[in-house]
């Protein structure tokens, strides 16, 4: 267990149907206690895991496409991760009906060392249509993607997500550990292009940190913010905050909402990073420093010195982008990349 030097700030949201907008607009994490406490799913789970499963079964789409279940042997102790040589994984993925996964979770619930079972990021409106009619959060004019996560005792390695994330615990308890984005160098991130589930992750085992192998992780711990969430609690994880999620009970359900503050036409910056690795990183040092200044001038500190001397109608890609300009630029880039 990690030391909890600093707790995540909290707001009491019991009896509130919509979280404070200022909290959703902030760039700091916050725990929203009781925000989802009024959900029928939360109340069913409070009765028993069986009651929660029966409630979810009411909404299961029929016929439904299979979900992807991540399954690991008891020896991994719920930690989905790489193989020892980082060339593979310690788990497998299986496609199966959601109802079969729920039944499996109930079946292994009494076991002292069950296999780890996890259904991650499953779109609610696709697999459980109607669930949000009774279990939802009012996020104002945001148009979030709502997903459900279901499993037993599991540990998800620290990673970042580009969208803002409101994660609501519907069943079980969760421990969340967050780090500011600037702790990148202290978290020992693994491969960028061979990942567990799409996002690069910290290689540190938070249950038993190896400070001989990862000494800078001690510095990261000084910046950690932690909270334990119970059913009905939620946490806002701002864009690009590192988060480690640990499910503490034998049956857990989490509902999360993702949204971006940027226009829909904007691409993920990860693509720009991959292109920079391919075209900038291995330049001679002096040339790399030159391109660092170019990126500062055009990307990170644009202003009057960047384009003020160019007539507005002639600025083209230097002008504010919109959907049309972005499509044109993307087509030009694809043409160059496919040379």
Ordered list of secondary-structure elements with their pairings:
Blueprint: E1 10-12, H1 21-25, E2 30-33, H2 40-47, H3 49-57, E3 67-72, E4 92-96, H4 98-108, E5 116-123, H5 124-127, H6 131-134, E6 145-151, E7 155-159, E8 164-171, E9 174-179, H7 217-221, E10 225-229, E11 234-237, E12 242-247, E13 252-259, H8 269-279, H9 285-300, H10 304-307, H11 323-337
Protein name: Cupin-like domain-containing protein
Pfam family, one: Cupin_8
InterPro entries: Cupin_8, JmjC_dom, RmlC-like_jellyroll
List keywords for this structure.
339 residues; 4-stranded antiparallel beta sheet; Jelly Rolls; RmlC-like_jellyroll
Architecture overview:
Residues 117-274 form the JmjC domain. Pfam families: Cupin_8. InterPro entries: Cupin_8, JmjC_dom, RmlC-like_jellyroll. This is Cupin-like domain-containing protein. With 339 residues, the protein is α+β, with helices and mostly antiparallel strands. The chain folds into two domains: 10-259, Jelly Rolls (Sandwich); 269-337, no CATH class. 27% of the residues lie in helices and 22% in strands. It is built from eleven helices and 13 strands. The chain has a nine-stranded mixed beta sheet with strand order 1-2-11-8-13-6-5-3-4. A four-stranded antiparallel beta sheet has the order 7-12-9-10, with no helix packed on it. The termini are far apart.
